[in-house]
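not sure who needs this but someone in the group chat was asking about GNAT family N-acetyltransferase from Actinomadura barringtoniae so here u go. i didnt clean anything up, its just raw.
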Amino acid sequence: MSDVLRTGRLALHPVSMSDHSALLAHWTGPKVRRHLFEGVALSPTQVTEVIASSQRDFATEGYGLWGLRDAGTALDHALPDGDLIGVAGLRGHGADVEIVYSLQPDRWGQGLAAEAGRAVLEYAFEVLRLRRVTAEIDAGLADVLGMRPHGDGHYAAERSAWFGSRHTVDV
């Protein structure tokens, strides 16, 4: 099983320590930070911890965080290439697996969050066979991904309903 995911426009590779500088810059940018980590800028040590946690999760759970890059700059399926434009992935354990994502602000409004989200949900449901994935995301993106309200401000996609609908993402 490969942990590399590809879409029409994106290549998703598990984050590694070689992504540290790019992740630090991405997650500490003021526009991105406003939506993540309760608005607090992560320290370099915290970024190291997030990457290490993702690597442990890939080893034990089969999922973690993927770095997003333009598919055209990531020609080798095994190795990431090109600039990091965001992150998408799964975190949590058991019945509490959540989809997460962030994009560089200059990439907002292009449908890339939906494209990455669909790839992650397909992986969650087809490869990992998870029953449900939750999210705290924008209502419009939740709808595009086939996620339904699940508590206050949260959404969920159930495996059986998601497969039945086979949501497509317009790009």
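also The longest strand covers residues 65-70. if thats useful
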